[in-house]
Write a structure and sequence with these properties.
Elements: E1 5-14, E2 17-27, E3 32-36, H1 43-49, E4 60-68, E5 71-72, H2 80-86, E6 87-90, H3 102-113, H4 119-132, H5 136-139, H6 152-165, E7 170-174, H7 182-195, E8 200-204, H8 208-214, E9 217-223, E10 230-237, H9 238-243, H10 248-254
The structure holds adenosine-5'-triphosphate.
Length: 259
């Protein structure tokens, strides 16, 4: 299920604007990799290129290679819609379907993949996914209530349940805790830790403590100046990046001296 991600020499454009330049990185399966760096350095753009969400923006494109467990993500026969279903994404703001029930929210992605599903199978998927997202105990008696009836932290875990319901190969998380209170943040961080047994997780975060707490590896991105492309500056184990980085810029960013 979990897959490694190998990116070579990836350039990412919005029209003529080169937003991210020359990224080469190998992200191991069953691990958590954090993307850190100052605003505008291209973390979210790069993240979205890993499930072909980037190109939904008109004029957006990439040059280079992204290989997930041997499969070229941008190969000529690859359907981007299928890729987006296989590589789950969790966004900054929880985005459950507000009027849809909790039960149906969990199944929303799953139903796109499977044409028909027996009620007993659907029940099993809902229970398994909500348990994976550490939400089952809180909602099992109100599965028919709307998604919007949950707290922000619960809604974010519902979105994670929706993402894992389809058993994705990779889970991409773009600042998943930035709209959450500290208790909900801690619940999501615990969850990320548990999920890495089954998934390859990539998480964008502005929170250095969070990167240090949840990730095995950290990639630091930076840009020379506004309008210049973002680049991957340094990548390594989180322990090394936080305690003994090779690059001065990495050290300065981690110590809060810029960004
Ligand atoms: N839809 C878009 N159209 C054109 N340019 C864009 C678009 N989205 C982002 N950019 C540009 O691409 C560059 C990288 O942006 P991106 O959002 O990926 O950075 P980031 O590191 O995730 O920033 P932040 O930490 O502030 O979220 C920026 O210069 C940004 O202005």
């Amino acid at each position: 299920m979990a897959k490694s991600i190998d990116v070579s020499d990836l350039d990412i454009y919005y029209g003529d604007f080169l937003a991210v330049e020359g990224v080469t990185i190998s992200i191991p399966a069953r691990s958590v990799t954090a993307f850190i760096g100052p605003s505008g350095c291209g973390k979210s753009t790069f993240l979205r290129s890993l499930n072909r969400m980037h190109e939904v923006i008109p004029g957006a494109r990439v040059d280079g290679k992204v290989v997930i467990d041997g499969q070229d993500l941008y190969g000529p026969d690859v359907d981007p819609v299928v890729v987006r279903r296989q590589i789950g994404m969790v966004f900054q703001r929880p985005n459950p379907f507000p009027t849809m029930s909790i039960y149906d929210n969990v199944l929303a992605g799953f139903k796109l993949n499977a044409k028909r599903i027996k009620k007993s199978d659907a029940d099993a998927v809902v229970e398994r996914s909500l348990k994976s997202a550490n939400l089952w105990n809180e909602v099992k008696d109100r599965l028919n209530r709307p998604g919007s009836s949950l707290s922000g932290g619960q809604q974010q875990r519902l979105c994670i349940a929706r993402a894992v319901a389809v058993e994705p190969q990779v889970l991409l998380m773009d600042e998943p805790c930035s709209a959450l209170d500290p208790i909900s943040t801690s619940a999501i961080e615990d969850l990320v830790h548990e999920l890495k047994e089954s998934y390859t997780i990539v998480i964008v975060t502005h929170n250095m403590q969070q990167a240090a707490r949840v990730s095995d590896d950290t990639a630091f991105f930076n840009l020379a100046s506004v309008g210049k492309p973002g680049r991957l500056i340094e990548y390594g184990t989180t322990a090394t990046i936080f305690s003994n980085p090779e690059e001065k810029a990495t050290e300065a960013y981690i110590q809060g001296r810029f960004g």
